[in-house]
Structures are given as structure tokens and as C-alpha cells.
Design a protein that fits this description.
This protein is mainly alpha-helical. 52% of the residues lie in helices and 0% in strands. It contains seven helices and no strands. Helix 4 (50-56) crosses helix 7 (104-117). The longest helix is centred in the middle third of the chain and has 19 residues, at 58-76. It is rod-shaped.
Length: 118
Amino acid sequence: DPERLAQQATLRDGTRLFDLPAGQRFAALERADWAASLAGAKTHREVHSLWGLFAATHRVVFLHELLFFASLCAVASPAEPVGATERRLMGNSRPVCFAALGLLVPVHAACWKLSTWF
């Protein structure tokens, strides 16, 4: 909040930072009393968890998940459909296996939405 900063930013000698001429403000920052100037101000919500890390890097995580499961489908799925008695984890044919990748999107979106709450 720029107005609040202009009102509360003070130097150690008690003068307000924005009462100084504009050319002298940068040089006066070393004499700023930041503890008094920012007392009672919460500038951001600080969260220390893996959810915060996920929220910050979710696009990279999603790309890695997508490539991992796509390579898993390419390697582990059969080239031609298998019999009805055999059950595979991600489908009995390669197209069904790749279609299962679509389930990754809502799961990732739910995790990302959850990470923004914590």
C-alpha cells in the first residue's frame, strides 16, 4: 500500500522518509527504521510447506508428470489389444492407455487448487 508506506516510513531520527526531497530519499534508506515503519503490517502470507513449493512450480511438475506417464504408456502398453481375460492397469490397448493420461489433468488441477489454500 503506497499511501501507508508514505505515511509510516520513518528514519531513526524520527523524520519521515517522504518528507525529504526526492533526490535524497535513496541515500536516506540506510537510516530507515524498518522495524518501526513496518510494525503491524503483514505484507504477504508466508507459508512454509511443500504445498507452497508445488504452487510455485506446478507447471514444471505437470510437464514432468505428463511426460513420465506418456513414456510409461509408450513402453508398457501392448502394441495390439490383448484378450478379454488379461487386465492391465491403464487399459488393454495403447489408445486406452493414452486416454488415461487425461485423468492426470483434473488430479493435477485439484492438487494445485489445494496448494493455494495452504
